[in-house]
Design a protein that fits this description.
By secondary structure, the chain is α/β, with parallel strands linked by helices. The protein is built from 9 helices and 18 strands. The strands form 4 sheets. A 6-stranded mixed sheet has the order 10-11-9-12-13-14, sandwiched between helices. A 5-stranded mixed sheet has the order 3-1-8-5-6, with no helix packed on it. The longest helix has 15 residues. It is elongated, with a radius of gyration of 31 Å. The two termini are 58 Å apart.
């Protein structure tokens, strides 16, 4: 188990729908009372919500199970069961929720996603009062509540910054951040991990400011998860521009050009898309370069300018060259999409059709409707949003593939007739 408070695994479960009730009116002078079984209540949803006061996932290392309340069973005398209570899970902005096994994104709590229903509670079952037909006036069948959905979730916090600082330890990244966002009250020190990614707000006169992140800890082998590598790289995934800080003076005894290639290789191994982001080179520690030496700045320029990189000689200590670097970064950001990088949803509930489960297709004389019902239909509806175009197309294909349309035609259905499926009514058109 690593010590990072920016990752956590939790189990979530929505509420099960309450079962419908089977009962019959028992009144003194009514010898054969009709059915009066009430519907079950709906199970509670599992909802994730951004809480601006949170900036780590520490709490989720202590509480790992989040369960919404089940719906109540229906009662006699048409009494509907109570709905189960939702459970609201509060997370810091920037939290990405992934399905644990596949690693697919379920939701990214960033941008406009401040409140998202991750699991819907099961629908309550219908009581036997709904199943009375002229042929069967005392139905002994009520609908069970839909089962509870559950998920194991991997949560990851990914910093929301426009600009990420890359570079080996001690090249001056944190000195640069401190300098450019000097003593501003809005500079947040986010204690995401034991290595503290720092976020700084850079304010500029006559130009748009931006958020810059220095996340220490990238070392060789990072993309294989060595050291703090993965945790570092996860935080730069949202950035739009990367500033690669090099120690131009070589004061630590390393070659800045070699450093650049080593770190970029790690970046590429982790995520090829990330390596394609616009990158600026900040050649730091110019104050430690003495005249008379062969200029390391010239060497860096000769190596990287032909490859299209913009190089800014600077000193985080004296402030030399910093202004030019920041204004260029701001200009570059203004040419890019200013919407935050939000990860798209990749994981959807999978509906697995169980052909052994029964269903019926009948004509209801009294209501003059064609009725389709049974556990298999109910299960399919639990996974299908009929309000959405995609959901409706899926539903139509399900009807066709399972021979339901043919069964309706065999019963003599005509254009304009009504089809009823558990609370949904449609006009039939071929």
């Amino acid at each position: 188990m690593n010590n990072f408070a920016d990752r956590a695994k939790i189990y979530i479960r929505a509420g099960k729908g309450g079962d419908g009730h089977i009962s019959f009116r028992r009144e003194k002078y009514v010898p054969n009372g009709g059915p009066d079984g009430g519907d079950g209540g709906n199970g509670g949803d599992v909802i994730f919500e951004v809480d601006e006061g949170l900036n780590t996932l520490t709490d989720f290392r202590h509480i790992r199970k989040y369960v919404a309340e089940d719906g109540e069973k229906g009662g006699k005398r048409n009494c509907r069961g109570k709905n189960g209570q939702d459970i609201v899970v509060k997370v810091p902005r920037g939290t990405v929720l992934k399905e644990f096994e596949s690693g697919k994104v379920i939701a990214d709590m960033s941008g406009d996603n401040t409140r998202v229903v991750i699991l819907e509670g099961g629908k309550g079952g219908r009581g036997n009062q709904h199943y009375a037909t002229p042929k069967m006036q005392a139905p002994k069948y009520a609908q069970p509540g839909q089962p509870a959905k559950e998920l194991n979730i991997q949560m990851e916090l990914k910093v929301i910054a426009d600009v990420g600082l890359l570079g080996y330890p001690n090249v001056g990244k944190s000195s640069l951040l401190t300098k450019v966002s000097n003593a501003r009250p809005e500079v947040a020190n986010y204690h995401f991990t034991t290595i503290n990614p720092h976020l700084g707000v850079v304010d500029l006169d006559d130009a748009k400011g931006f958020v810059m992140a220095d996340i220490p800890g990238l070392i060789e082998g990072a993309s294989e998860g060595v050291g703090l590598g993965h945790d570092f790289l996860r935080h730069v995934e949202r950035t739009k521009v990367l500033i690669h800080v090099l120690d131009a003076s070589g004061s630590e005894g390393r070659d800045p050009i070699e450093d650049f290639y080593t770190i970029n290789k790690e970046l590429e191994n982790y995520d090829a898309e990330l390596a394609k982001r616009p990158m600026i080179i900040a050649a730091n520690k110019c104050d430690l370069i003495f005249e008379g030496d062969e200029s390391p700045i010239d060497k860096i320029k000769a190596e990287f300018e032909p490859k299209g990189y913009k190089i800014f000689p600077m000193s985080a200590l004296t402030g030399e060259g910093i202004k030019e670097l920041l204004y260029y970064t701001s200009t570059l950001l203004s040419t890019l999409d200013d919407k935050p990088v939000v990860f798209e949803r990749e994981y959807f509930d999978e509906f697995v059709d169980d052909v052994t489960e029964p269903f019926t297709v009948e004509y209801d004389d009294k209501a003059k409707e064609y009725v389709i019902e049974g556990p298999r239909i109910e299960k399919m509806l639990g996974f299908t949003n009929l309000e959405s175009e995609k959901g409706f197309v899926f539903f139509q294909n399900f009807m066709k593939d399972n021979g339901i349309l043919k069964m309706l035609e065999d019963l003599g259905i005509e254009d304009g007739d009504t089809v009823r499926i558990y609370g949904h009514s449609f006009d039939y058109y071929k």
